[in-house]
């Protein structure tokens, strides 16, 4: 059996019960890591689509308050997802930087 060094916990791009964050202990190459990467990609794509739709609706003089309220609710959800992704990726960048710096300090 091959053992890989675990990195720190990865914040996953979805919330658990009661909206609590979910974390994964992994080396970053497992099946669940790939699922999380795919979910992040879908979430970012959806956020971009919502922004494009929002721009169209803001230009439309006939848009109703109900339509805008609905779109803003979905945009709020997407922004929450994007913030969670940014937090997760930022944490992983810090870990990678710390590991690289530690290896460089150890020398040959």
Short account of what is shown:
This protein is mainly α and 108 residues long. 66% of the residues lie in helices and 9% in strands.
Structural class of the helix and strand makeup?
mainly alpha
Element order: H for helix, E for strand: EEHH
Q: Would you report the number of β strands?
A: 2
Largest sheet: 2 strands, antiparallel
Overall average residue pLDDT:
86
Number of domains: 1
What does this structure look like?
The chain has 108 residues and is mainly α. The chain has one domain (10-88). Helix content is 66%, strand content 9%. It has two helices and two strands; from the N terminus they run E-E-H-H. The chain has a two-stranded antiparallel sheet with strand order 1-2. Strand 1 (10-15) and strand 2 (21-24) form a beta hairpin. The longest helix is centred in the last third of the chain and has 42 residues, at 65-106. It starts with 9 loop residues before the first strand and ends with a helix. 7% of the residues are buried.
Sequence-ordered SSE layout with sheet pairings:
Layout: E1 10-15, E2 21-24, H1 31-59, H2 65-106
Antiparallel strand pairs: 1-2
Helix pairs in contact: 1-2
Features:
2 helices; mainly alpha; two-stranded antiparallel sheet; 108 residues
